[in-house]
Amino acid sequence: MLFAAKFAEKSGEGKMQILMEQNTNQQQYIKQLRLWNDKYAAETGARRRAFVLTFGCQQNEADSEKLKGTALAMGYELTEQPAQADLIVVNTCAIREHAELKALSIIGQYKHIKQKHPDLVIAVCGCMPAQESRKNELKNKYPYVDLVFGTTSAHRFPELLHEKLERGKRLFCPEATEGIVVEGIPVKRESSYRAWVSVMYGCNNFCSYCIVPYVRGRERSRRAEDVIAEVRELVESGYRDITLLGQNVNSYGKDLGNGYDFADLLRDVSTIEGDYLLHFMSSHPKDATEKLIDVMATCPHIAPHFHLPMQSGSDRVLKAMNRRYDTEKYYSIVEYMRSKIPGIAITSDIIVGFPGETEEDFEGTLEMLRRVRFDMLYSFIFSPRKGTPADTMPDPVPDAVKSERFSRLLALQNEISLEKNLPLEGKTLRVLCDGVSKTNAELCQGRTDQGKIVFFPCDPARMGDYVCVHIDRADSYALYGTIAEA
Ligand code: 5AD
Ligand code: SF4
């Protein structure tokens, strides 16, 4: 069933095989489960239902679209109500402790559903159970959880569910040791105009605070032709906004060993004709090459937006984080981007309170915010992750100091975001109409090509359309306007 090449991986950790596989060996399980569910539907007049709950990043959102697509292929109907489900799948995140505790608390609530409905199958997957300690915790403290598998076994979902149902026993799948890229898994996309396309999986960077390399394995890239075919199909079926995803998206291709890199992929994908915009995330500064920025500057289908996590503005902290760049290198990338793509939006991730962060280190971060002037920041307080080097680093900084620094960071960024947004008042911008405002049902919300959030009165029937919006007002968080076209 393996049909393609095995690639040698240069991770510096010894060679690992990366297997490119089609989803064919899961088809038999999908078929058998489909028959089982069809029989139930014929006998009872109702379909078994599956509920998929997602925590975490866009990669997890994309993985959940595959879990949902697979559930549908197996003959389940999707529900938004866990209490009505016959199969609950919780796709978890492990990036910070808060995400894990939230997932565990919700899984705890499913105990009552299981008591009322003993045939319910509860599966927990994603990054959290890819850690042995969490897998054991689920085994010992959550006896009503039936099936547990991590990210490296997610493609085996039908087989694992089949085995669980057939044998009746709880099943805890060990993590796969080989890297694998599986094509052809069914997908149920949440939107008909905005789509995620994973181009690579895993991470080799081992930033000292980060759990991702331990729970998602080594970097492995999809074949360019598979990515291009998927994006072409999406554009042909009307998708307008396509985000190429990878934990470390701009190191795409390194494992393929043929010199083809992320800039090449982006250039080739953007030759697809149609009315669409490409985004990508997340990038590492060490792989943010001039070649990549040159491609962005010349291809009109690539959004003028670069999400480039900086993490800290202190060279000492960046070194302790194992980030492999310093603030000057980071700033030189920003300057090159702005020289080639005037008006480009630059957004970033910052961690406050890395172990041993001094006031001077933190001032360095504030200084970089003033120099770079990011359009938007995603900021986080450091969360120790078991098994990562930063977990055991001495951390004398009290939590109260971290919280206070976090507030100062937000306050400065709010000022900068406002200063960056105010000049947009009076301008007319293209906006992809994306949803209804959560706080005011009269307003639609959308995003500009630069990724800025815009609220405006609009007929929800225009969801998924590009509209021109005159910006009447701006604050640090969003833009507010009115449709400027007939
Ligand atoms: N604590 C806090 N933030 C973290 N991130 C990754 N690991 C941690 C951690 N242990 C942040 C980084 C990364 C983003 C996705 O999450 O800023 O870029
Ligand atoms: Fe984590 Fe660093 Fe990899 Fe990003 S690049 S996923 S922060 S280890």
Please indicate the count of domains: 4
Mean pLDDT rating: 93
Bound molecules: 5'-deoxyadenosine, iron/sulfur cluster
Spatial sequence of strands, sheet with the most strands: 4-3-5-6-7-8
Instruction: Report low-confidence residues grouped into runs of 5 or more.
Output: 1-15
- Structure class: alpha/beta
CATH architecture of the largest domain: 3-Layer(aba) Sandwich
Gist?
This protein has helices at 24-44, 58-73, 97-116, 132-141, 157-167, 212-216, 224-236, 262-269, 290-298, 315-320, 327-340, 359-372, 399-421; strands spanning 2-8, 17-22, 49-54, 77-78, 87-92, 121-126, 147-150, 171-172, 179-183, 194-198, 200-201, 220-221, 241-245, 277-281, 305-307, 345-352, 376-381, 428-436, 443-448, 453-457, 466-474, 479-483. With 486 residues, it is of the alpha/beta class.
Could you explain the architecture of this structure?
Helices cover 35% and strands 23% of the residues. It has 486 residues and is of the alpha/beta class. The chain contains 13 helices and 22 strands. It has helices spanning 24-44, 58-73, 97-116, 132-141, 157-167, 212-216, 224-236, 262-269, 290-298, 315-320, 327-340, 359-372, 399-421, and strands at 2-8, 17-22, 49-54, 77-78, 87-92, 121-126, 147-150, 171-172, 179-183, 194-198, 200-201, 220-221, 241-245, 277-281, 305-307, 345-352, 376-381, 428-436, 443-448, 453-457, 466-474, 479-483. The protein has four domains: 2-172, Methylthiotransferase, N-terminal domain (Rossmann fold, 3-Layer(aba) Sandwich), CATH 3.40.50.12160; 191-303, Transcription Regulator spoIIAA (2-Layer Sandwich), CATH 3.30.750; 305-423, Transcription Regulator spoIIAA, CATH 3.30.750; 425-483, OB fold (Dihydrolipoamide Acetyltransferase, E2P). Bound molecules: 5'-deoxyadenosine and iron/sulfur cluster.
